[in-house]
Specification:
Oligomer: heterodimer
Shape of chain A: extended
Largest sheet of chain A: none
Order of helices and strands of chain B: HHHEHEHEHHEHHEHEHHHEEHH
Distance between the termini of chain B: 44 Å
CATH class of chain A: Mainly Alpha
Number of helices of chain B: 15
Order of helices and strands of chain A: HHHH
GO molecular function, one term (chain B): iron-sulfur cluster binding
Largest interface: A-B, 10 and 18 residues
Number of strands of chain B: 8
Keywords (chain B): Iron, Iron-sulfur, Metal-binding, S-adenosyl-L-methionine
Structural class of chain A: mainly alpha
CATH architecture of chain B: Alpha-Beta Barrel
Cofactor (chain B): [4Fe-4S] cluster
Organism (chain B): Nonlabens tegetincola
CATH topology of chain A: AhpD-like
Number of domains of chain A: 1
Radius of gyration of chain A: 19 Å
CATH class of chain B: Alpha Beta
Protein name (chain B): Radical SAM
Amino acid sequence: MQKTYYDPKDLKKFGKISEWNEQLGEKFFDYYGKVFEEGALTAREKSLIALAVSHAVQCPYCIDAYTGDGLQRGITKEEMMEAVHVAGAIRGGATLVHGVQMMNKVNKLEM
Amino acid sequence: MAVNTKVSLKKRESELAAIAKQMEVLNGEPFSDGELPTFANKIKETNQFPLRPKKLEILQVNVGYMCNQVCAHCHVDAGPDRKEIMTRETMSQILDVIKTTGAHTLDLTGGAPEMNPNFRWFVEQASAAGIQDFIVRSNLTIIRANPKYYDLPDFFKKHNIHVVSSMPHWTRGKTDKQRGDGVFDKSIKALQELNERGYGMPGSDLKLDLVYNPSGAFLPGDQASMEKDFKAALLEDFNIQFHNLFAITNLPISRFLDYLVASENYEDYMYALVEAYNPTAVQNVMCTNTISVSWDGWLYDCDFNQMLDLKVNHKIKHIKDYQEDLLLDRNIVISQHCYGCTAGAGSSCQGTVA
């Protein structure tokens, strides 16, 4: 039994999820492939969004994948770090904006 | 002790300067234990073994390993300390071949080919022989390295040389990290000078192409997208234009192999190359239409095999004995480094092949 939850080699086995549900697996990967095609956004822009979201959802597989993808596309480390800060700002903001809820509650309950 | 990366592996007396050691790495794990298939076994799966040449189209001549740069990824292990330089005698033997060859392209490489003292003489002679496409692989900085090279753009123009130059990125940081401090600024200046002569301009017959090599242990992205990004950035930032971008995969030999091993990226890189294997690319790999000649006149299937001293598998092995028709009847020499030319859209000195 493996001693850690994450193994970098598992990323290469991602496609295997289709083995236990071929129909849904194939639909997902088809959708996934289409999402990252050039569209109104360039594939490069989508790669940076994916990198930021990878950090927001804290997925180590995704961070590995989209760091490598970014390097292949010539995305610089400065661009990558700015994207991560966007994720950080949203996550931080998402926490802090709930402070208003806390303030509302305090204001309602306190005399 | 800190490793001096400003000199060649040979000068450093690095273990991997020895070709036998490089071959030991390429033939070792993860291939020797069957974790990954050897290149020979991989192409057997699609009935492409043995690899055979087609019509000869490109004669690639390496006029010496001396260079004014010491790039981190260099497969030649070139540098200022390398003294291997083609003599005028060997050049004369090549000129005899050029007069009769069916190849449409003559491709001069190095090192920095311009540093060979007989470079200009050879270009003048070869140009007079009437080759259709005459390429010089220039590292750009040589044009600004010393006043004696300042007129190179005019010399190239006079002989209608097709200039192919390395440029790993449109930013200073990434370029200098791979090619050395100050290389980016000098390269930009050299590109502007070439543009001033008409090189690389839209519709110009003076061809200027750039070569992109990834600056690390990853494969190149889509060539067309990279070209678009390079063109937009170089035009906006420096008013520079060029014709085509060739995306070339770094092959795991020489200094790049040394980097892969030292940074513990070797195994992952080989997995990435094998995973990206594309049998369609095998049909058009450059060794099927190229002969590579070393500074001392030996014949190879490609410049990479030259650096591994894997000579052509034929009784004719030297330019002095060259017979084009006979040389077509040979099996191309392959090893695990060949995966570099068959990954994704494939890779060659002319960019992607599939």
